[in-house]
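INFO worker-7 received task bundle
INFO bundle size: 2
INFO processing item 0
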Amino acid sequence: MHVPDGFIDAPVSVATGVVAAGAVAVSLRGARRELDERTAPLAGLVAAFIFAVQMLNFPVAAGTSGHLLGGALAAILVGPYTGVLCVSVVLLMQGVLFADGGLTALGVNITDMALVTTVVAYAIFRTIVKLAPHRRRTVTVASFVAALVSVPAAAVAFTAIYALGGTADVAIGKVFAAMVGVHVLIGIGEAAITALTVGAVVAVRPDLVYGARGVTGRPLEIRSSPLAPAAPGQVARADGPVADAARAPEPDDARAPEPDAARAPEPDGAAVPAAAPKRSARRVWWAGLAAALLCAGVVSFYASASPDGLEKVAHDKGIDKKAEDHAAKDSPLADYGVKDISDARLSGGLAGVIGVGATLAVGSGVFIVVRRRRAAAESERG
């Protein structure tokens, strides 16, 4: 849904730029409350992952494709304020390096794809987790519904912006029907990607999912995994899950001591508490980075070549006749390929890897600075 230059006139582009700048400023302040020393690097990874998965266009109808917008995914994983910043970083890198989404339309794209999707998705997500049974599955279901609704909401927002500043003489009713219709289908793909990703992280490290905090009346159970060492106040069991130490005791043969040679032996059948006061997110970070590089560097070659929802509607309704050349059209990475490399697979894969690295570096830098400013403010108050 990247809006190119020329679709929206100058006054409305400026107005949405002001809205976007205000949203980013507010989000920078709000992100200080959401980020800590572990989640700040993960927020940069979330931005890089969204960049990578946005390269994976999937078919939704004859001659039309869709891709992840990412607002719901970012908001649920790292918080709504940080989520706005994550998607904004992605849009900035796409516009500057890859000529994807107009530079004069950057305010439109941030307002539509970062602000609207994040606010709508997180509001729906929080409503569901408050009203539904407090279980881990609720987080995944709420993620699906929130992401599903956020995409057509962005389509409605684009239609409203186009009604105010569209440069082509097209009936708004037709634009609305076409945009919402195709983006409901795209929303299903967005919902599936979001729910699978959130569910995977919740399964191994629910403590790293912002939206899962405080959802359940008891701690979320964590499956035994190399990514999920036991946490303080929990006990390890030989049959897989890690349960809260306060729960009712199991039969004597159901428990096994945690394999940590540094601990004193416990009587048979006794609960063995975890050792580390804090659990590192390093393995999750590396796993996420590997997934992002795989998506951008390899899987993206097999993505659908059909135009996405906005491109298809713009072509069918004649909106694209007003499109202008991108200011970065001569970028060596324009159109997600490396200039002067003739092999399409190598060119696209290398461009994707470069994009993941650049987005990770910029995003991590932003979030680490935000985190340090919070730490400095706390030390001054202390």
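INFO item 0 finished
INFO processing item 1
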Amino acid sequence: MSLAPRAVLVHRTTEYEELVARHGTHGQAAFFLSSRGRDIEEIAERHRRTRRALAEVTAAIPLTWRQTRVERRDLDRFLFAPEDVVVVVGQDGLVANVAKYLAGQPVVGIDTDPGRNPGVLVRHRPADAGALLAGTAGVEELTMVEAVADDTQRLVALNEIYLGAAGHQTARYRLGLDGDGGAAEAQASSGVLVGTGTGATGWIRSVWQERGGGVPRLPGPSEQRLLWFVREAWPSPATGTSLVAGELAAGARLTLTVESERLIAFGDGIESDAVELTWGQRVTVGVCGERLRLVVG
């Protein structure tokens, strides 16, 4: 007998909850903000909208389904099951946060603050939840990026992966591409960024614009194609700048060999969940075999 679907509501602690937790009471949080020229009511209203959205989505879950909730900070400890339907209630970034932990489960993005969020990944309103969970909605498969180290550490991201130093130090490494006959260029830079079509709505797009759009066009979210950029490559007698941007088609790989004591790789801006790399380690980056299945209505 197959299990009934389980709705997993993914949310994050609101700014209001964080403020009250820090200051103890609503009044103390309000006093703290007012001393800095801010009004707590705006933050409290966003909190109330989020709570209303969670309640509305919860009420729309079919009675025969199981359900649970998970907060963003607990995602790395939560075990998703094959029969789960993941309902992200919050911002676009929350969908990216959960994507790396999934293996094909459909994701419904619910926007709690229309007009404030871009709505790239949270495309629906709380009132749409019932129809979306009925199972008749379409699904868009979004390309993801992965980095695999030679010690089997693996990192997956929906937007982009950054490889570089943990702080503001220079990252030193050798960079190469598949098909170059093993040739690699020694580089010193602010790090390497490899992103997807979904990431092309954020960090990757800003770097692309700074380069004047000189590299290939930005990919679409479902395209099996990535863009990569070296940030602020430094020319010197020992380091070059000939490999600073390009694209990776499906199956192609960018290879980085570490020549620093410590570099890290992290995805979608979550530096706390980074892969640690040390001198001589090799990491390859390319299109991920898994894709995010986003319910589009």
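INFO item 1 finished
INFO post-check item 1: Residues 162 and 193 are 5 Å apart (CA to CA).
INFO post-check item 1: The two ends are 29 Å apart (CA to CA).
INFO worker-7 idle
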